[in-house]
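Slide 14.
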Amino acid sequence: MIELRKIFILVFVISLLGITASCYTQSSPVKGDCLFAEKINQIKEYVVSIEAYSTDKEANICRIGTGLILNKNGLIITRESVILDSDSIEIVDINKRQGSAWIVYKNQGIILLGTNLPIEVKPCFYKDLEVNNNSRLAVLGNSFGIFPSVMLGEYMGDLPNGFKKLNIFLAPGNTGSPVINSQGHIVGLITGRFDLYSDDSKERNRGVFIPLNIVFHTIKKFIKPNRGWIGISAVDREKDDDNIIEVIRVFKGSPAYKAGIKAGDIIVTFQDSTMHSIHDIAKGISQFEPYSTVTFQILRGDQTLTKKVTIGDPILIRDYSK
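Slide 15: predicted structure.
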């Protein structure tokens, strides 16, 4: 059944994006469909496929989802469920270019990722568009691992939390996908299936999306004022009946890289306070503005080292990959 759905989605995408060639010889309704397809074709430049991996032997998972490019500085919006419990995040753009990504901000299920993949587009988003009953909508994302794929549906009403229900078969991989109206405007992001919010099994295949104005409201505290970033990936581990924080990756050119922190280092303290989890570190860094200097004590083999890190500005994250 899944293979048949893959074939259906692939054929649908080819058909939808291929009808634009005959737009000017068709009737008005068909011209409207052609315009819809043209807009979707433009927006695909802003969409990326996300693959999130876990090195935990018990988890041993790879999650697949979708992200929306926020700006040319390398920030990408997605949903927390896409990268849950992941140690390594990879992205692929419409041109099949691959890059690494990392979490720079998380709030109420919305995730902002930074990436070392060059961003060459300048997105323009519409934040306050109304969606009416039975409005035609499209989801542009990563269906069953097929990227990019397009699925059509209709708006079916609001949920109590402000999210909106979409009459569509929501395929795995579409979480984080942009929802596009018939005028070609992005109006929201897919947040999951309706059965996550309801006990009605008959509606389990329907999707739920979060309006774009709520997304921007959620991340505006990060965008202004900016939060700090040091450029590491770390995991919580258990060693000798104690919890430790191990650095598993340091991004080249990042503040941590310039300070001499390396993969394999164990973080012991931050600003002379003992750290018990990566969440403690993230919370501590968030208290400091970019360009502040902070102190880490790390364990490297038998050596205890002190590293001073100048916190970077994630909005200028492109500078770190040079």
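Speaker note: Residues 114 and 220 are 16 Å apart (CA to CA).
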